[in-house]
Amino acid sequence: MPFKPLQFTPLPDNEMIQRSSTFREQLATRRSVRHFSTKEVPMEVINNVVMTASSAPSGANKEPWTFVIVKDPKIKRDIRIAAEKEEKAFYDHRAPDEWLADLEPLGTDWHKPFLEDAPFLIVVFKKIYGMEEDLQFKHYYVNESVGIASGFLLAAVHQAGLMALTHTPSPMGFLSKILKRPENERAFLLIPVGYPAEDAEVPVLTKKTFEEVAEVF
Ligand SMILES: Cc1cc2nc3c(=O)[nH]c(=O)nc-3n(C[C@H](O)[C@H](O)[C@H](O)COP(=O)(O)O)c2cc1C
Question: Homologous superfamily of 43-195 in CATH?
């Protein structure tokens, strides 16, 4: 593989501190929202956030992901129906009591109208191995790679001035069927993207402090 000189401009300390602080403040205002407006969003924004996600690092640069973008109302409806079926079973009898107790403060239940209301659903699939024609090849650190790309995606949606929800209806096999995914792909996250509903509320949460999440040696 050919190499090229790295493009890198060092910043003075004060500018680094300023930039990191501004970015921290910007991302600290990100929230998951569960009530979406049906207001349309330009497709170009979705292209940009997906390509931001796809710029993420990945094990051996295999880029083991597919972002399936759903805007068709009929497909969104099929996804909602299938997700609500799984979620109803989860809330009614599959979820252990401890899990339900942890979800209680978030006010979630099996109803998922946002799967139809949000103008776009971005379904992130991980590719557990690569496939070219009939040949299979190995992927490395797939969960780590797709998790990082999904983090880039959520940050890009926020930066664009839109809202997202990280949604994981469990199990997610129905997404492979509805979206006709190949054998090497598994649904990873279902992310509605759009504007919040006018009356949207979010639970009051506190985030851990630096001392709680970091250790310095
Ligand atoms: C891997 C993952 C799975 C999640 N699954 C769901 C979900 O299925 N339904 C839901 O309403 N929220 C889900 N969430 C959102 C979390 O509840 C939310 O991120 C958390 O309460 C913190 O709120 P915030 O995102 O507003 O900071 C998920 C988040 C993550 C990271």
Answer: NADH Oxidase (3.40.109.10)
> How much distance in Å is there from the Cα of 47 to the middle of ligand 1?
23
Residue ranges per structural domain of the chain: 43-195
DSSP tag of 104: G
pLDDT in tens, 96-106: 999 999 999 99
**Which residue has its alpha carbon closest to ligand 1 atom 18?**
32
pLDDT in tens, 104-116: 999 999 999 999 9
Tell me 119's DSSP state. Answer: S
Going by C-alpha positions, the residue among 104, 94, 98, 114 that lies closest to residue 167 is 114
How does DSSP classify residue 60?
A: G
In a mutational test of the pocket of ligand 1, which residue from 168, 172, 175, 208 has the highest number of ligand atoms less than 8 Å from its CB?
168
Regarding the beta carbon of 166 and ligand 1, being less than 6 Å apart is answered yes
φ, ψ of residue 140 in degrees (nearest 5): -120, 140
Tell me the three state secondary structure of residue 28. Answer: helix
The span from the CA of 158 to the CA of 154, in Å, is 6
Of 192, 170, 197, residue with least CA distance to 84: 170
Q: Whose CA is nearest to atom 23 of ligand 1?
A: 32
